[in-house]
């Protein structure tokens, strides 16, 4: 091996080393860029999920408020039915007093 061959091999090795370093640098740059883009996408998804969760919480709060209102209205209707039942009973008693005593056969029929 003469000096020219050694210099050519050293130059070839330096070329391959430079090429490998450039490739590794490019791969590193691409991986860093990919990581940054992935982080940005995850951040966007997290923000969307936070907004979705907030709107869902607001909707559930509204639904709970409406159910409370419906329960209050049902209680009011139940109270009115109880008052109506009491009024009907009072009217039956008053009507029975007006009509006077009934024969036993009619009492048994109701």
Describe the structure in brief.
It is built from 2 helices and no strands.
Number of DSSP E strands: 0
* Largest sheet composition: none
Low-confidence stretches: none
Question: What structural category characterises the helix and strand content?
Answer: mainly alpha
The sequence of SSEs as H and E is HH
Textual characterization of the structure:
Helix content is 94%, strand content 0%. By secondary structure, it is mainly α. The mean pLDDT is 88.
Topology readout:
Elements: H1 3-99, H2 104-109
Keywords:
110 residues, rod-shaped, 2 helices, mainly alpha, single chain
């Amino acid at each position: 091996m003469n000096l020219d061959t050694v210099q050519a091999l050293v130059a070839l090795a330096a070329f391959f080393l430079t090429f490998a370093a450039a490739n590794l640098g490019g791969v590193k740059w691409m991986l860093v860029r990919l990581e940054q883009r992935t982080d940005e996408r995850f951040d966007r998804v997290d923000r969307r999920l936070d907004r979705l969760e907030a709107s869902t919480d607001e909707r559930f709060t509204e639904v709970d408020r409406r159910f409370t209102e419906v329960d209050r209205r049902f209680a009011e209707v139940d109270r009115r039915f109880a008052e109506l039942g009491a009024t009907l009973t009072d009217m039956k008693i008053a009507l029975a007093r007006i009509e006077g005593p009934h024969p036993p056969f009619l009492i048994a029929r109701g």
